[in-house]
Amino acid sequence: MPSSPAASARRWRLPVLAAAALLVGVAVPGAAAAPAPEAGTAAVTAYDDTYYASAAGKTGASLKSTLHSIIRNQTKISYSAVWTALKETDEDPANSANVRLLYSGTSRSKALNGGDVGDWNREHVWAQSHGDFGTSAGPGTDLHHLRPADVQVNSIRGNKDFDLGGSAVSGAPGSYTDSNSFEPRNADKGDVARMILYMAVRYEGTDGWPDLEPNDAVTNGTVPFHGRLSVLKQWNEQDPPDAFERNRNELIYSAYQHNRNPFIDHPEWVEAIW
Questions:
Q1: What is the DSSP track for 124-139?
Q2: Whole-structure pTM value
Q3: Which of 266, 138, 90 is nearest to 194 (CA)?
Q4: Which of 77, 220, 233, 261 could form an SS bridge with 81, CB 3.0 to 4.6 Å?
Q5: pLDDT (tens place) for every residue of the chain, 274 residues total
Q6: CA nearest 226: which of 168, 172, 185, 182?
């Protein structure tokens, strides 16, 4: 489970005191052995002085609005082009002939893309029906929330909101589902959270698409909401961005859409906004 704000404050107090001690020449017991900041905390990225410059120092609605203005500038691709893109963005680092599947972590041949049992297909992490945007260029083809997934696992997930609990999902060890929610395996929890919250910032109802927003419900159906926000926030903290997720963000930015998922670069912005 993510640590409380008080616990986070305690983690940072010792390094701050140590820095102060260096300035005044006073020793702080144990300061020399202070641990490095945990993964996912206020990282400074290579894009802070350029791409994210206008977001500096902002929080809440102001930060959300500014990030929307930044990331809405993107190159849109067709739904058929998503197949090609996913074969690059989700390539298995251990086997360049395969992609890594969401929800299961399975490595599967790039050639097995399709709709049959044993194939992988294009999973909309923000379910298409939550806002009814389909597969048209825009939210329906946005690579920042499209991932390869096993056909049958994708069908089990359907358009369910995300939450904890349920029965084990066949074909996706560590994932669970019930009648109205889906819980991905631990290694994918943060990825899912950051994809959902990216969509909520990117699509604000200003360019012909629905205003997508997170909420704390698991019965959203066709309304443009996705839940459960309180759980997604926990997952963002529990499972910080790893090398695979960061590489994916970079490829989408450099080779395809030319926009970034800000919550991969700065996962602490989730708490700053919500």
A1: ESS-TTTTT-TTSTTG
A2: 0.85
A3: 266
A4: 77
A5: 444 443 333 333 333 333 333 333 333 233 333 333 344 444 568 999 999 999 999 999 999 999 999 999 999 999 999 999 999 999 999 999 999 999 999 999 999 999 999 999 999 999 999 999 999 999 999 999 999 999 999 999 999 999 999 999 999 999 999 999 999 999 999 999 999 999 999 999 998 999 999 999 999 999 999 999 999 999 999 999 999 999 999 999 999 999 999 999 999 999 999 9
A6: 182
